[in-house]
Amino acid sequence: MTCAAEPAASRRVPLDPACLPPPGIHAVLQLQGHSIAIFGMDDGWHAIADSCPHQGASLAGGKLEGGAVQCPAHGLRFDLATGCLRNAPALRVAVYPIEMGPDGITIALPCKE
Rieske domain location, by residue (predicted)? Predict the structure, then answer.
């Protein structure tokens, strides 16, 4: 079974570059009702929902290894690119793509319903 992102309508929201961590560092950002864990990586930034779906632990404090973050509470490992739990892709956290463009840095957030 593979983990594919479900298509969803999103909007691009500008980010202040000062809130983006350098490689190897994480930050938590509260943005328009979303608690987002942002991880600085050598290839840019990865942003996922900060709450583990198992029992709500903050993923920002987890250990980074091989493109995944390990939940500090119970050891679940989530892929930063897809948000999927490694070895059990049916469980996932939201992923918020960050892009650098001509108008600055933006993050994709779900459209309000």
Answer: 12-107
pLDDT at residue 4 greater than cutoff 60: no
Q: What is the pTM of this model?
A: 0.88
Q: How far is CA 101 from CA 12, 18, 28, 108, in A?
A: 11, 16, 22, 13
Nearest CA to 98 among 27, 12, 23, 33?
A: 12
pLDDT tens figures, 12-51: 999 999 999 999 999 999 999 999 999 999 989 999 999 9
The count of other CB atoms within 10 Å of the CB of residue 86 is 16
Contacts of 18 (CB under 8 A, 6+ apart): none
Phi, psi of 11, deg, nearest 5: -130, 150
Task: Tell me the C-alpha distance between 45 and 99, whole Å.
Answer: 9
User: Tokens 């594919």 belong to which residue?
Assistant: 4
